[in-house]
Design goal:
mainly beta; 29 strands; globular; 434 residues; 5-stranded antiparallel β-sheet
Length: 434
Amino acid sequence: MCLQQPSVAELEVLPGGGLSLWQKFLFTASHNRLHIFPSIPKPANPMAELAADNRGVDSPPPLPLPLPMPDDVLREILLRLPPEPIYLFRASLVSKHWRALVHDAGFLRRCREFHGGTPPVLGFFNLTRPPLFVPTSGSFAASAATVHHGDWFPLDCNRGRALLISERSRALLVRDLVTGDERHLPLPPGFEGSWDRNSALLCAAAGHADHCDCRSCPFLVAFVFSHGRFITSACLYSSETGVWGEVTSMFTRNQFVERKAMALVGNTLYCLLDNNWIIEFNFETCSLDVIGELSYKVLNSCIGHIIMTTEDGQLGLAGVGGFSLQLWSSTTCIDDGMVTWADRRVIDLEKLLAPEVVAACTAPVWPIGYAQDADVIFIEVYPSGVYMIHLKSLRIVKVSENMAHGYICPYTSFYAPGINIRGGNDQPELLNNT
């Protein structure tokens, strides 16, 4: 059997309360699309059919009920739905049997593998204004009842976990937004509270190359902050030891840590300073160094610079100039070890955005976040709202009518609505639908 991955999945639950005969769906895979039809054709005009019977006209015999679809065929079809949770959510509403198939832990693992280990974007955290979390998937509601804007502020997200800080409580929080699992951490030594800080949440599992399911793995927290008279420090926390490592510091004249997301390349994290210099923190050797600054060419051609990791695993950069999204890659000079930048790709946003959105734009388009797991970049287009762009396919999606007015932390995770993945091997625990 050979099934093509659909370009569009059309799923709907018909109105009318409980499941009737008209709500028994069948998938048919054809023309690269998935369609769902009722198992019995509904009469177009029941009164006309009744009138025909009264005239003595023989009615056509009823169509036989279709044979049940084998589970292995049904799984192959469900597997080819897009990874966004809304599609599996709608499929789970068809029947209890379909719900059990969708929520099977073995099927969910196959689904992750089938989609290349790339988790969907479920939402993003606002750094500067409420609401704290904005969902981008209609079926996902974050488990964040104890986390409120104004008390907790986002620092980073990584594969189903979010890292937040509360200077009021003087603590860090690592939280799984799907299950509600959380772990409180002390603030790093030497950090007395400052907005000039940055942090990254990393998976610490050995030999975990694809990081498809890190939510149960040990983790690391890298924390970089500016304090005193232009001193920048960094240290690393391990969930396995439960303690912070050695603090390393360096002098950074007139430079403070930016709150933009850091980029991970190998065992090194890269962080922007507020005067467009870049520092690197190698968390294996616990070393902190300056590696260079953004070139005049980069600064003159685009704004809102975000550092990122390129497809080939190198340090990259994104910025917007006019309606051009510019992507840069770095090279390291052999003589002095400083980083230089080269054009990698230019994306014309006017071809992606609707003409009326472009015409109504009254402020510079601004890049506000990057989800490395999903290779998705977020832009803010005033006054239209926030959009996310899939860099591989160039698919653009509007995710918020409200302006973020600052940088965001995108949240990605594999997620099947209505289940708790803590249920164990192949036995996910069902949750109440909310």
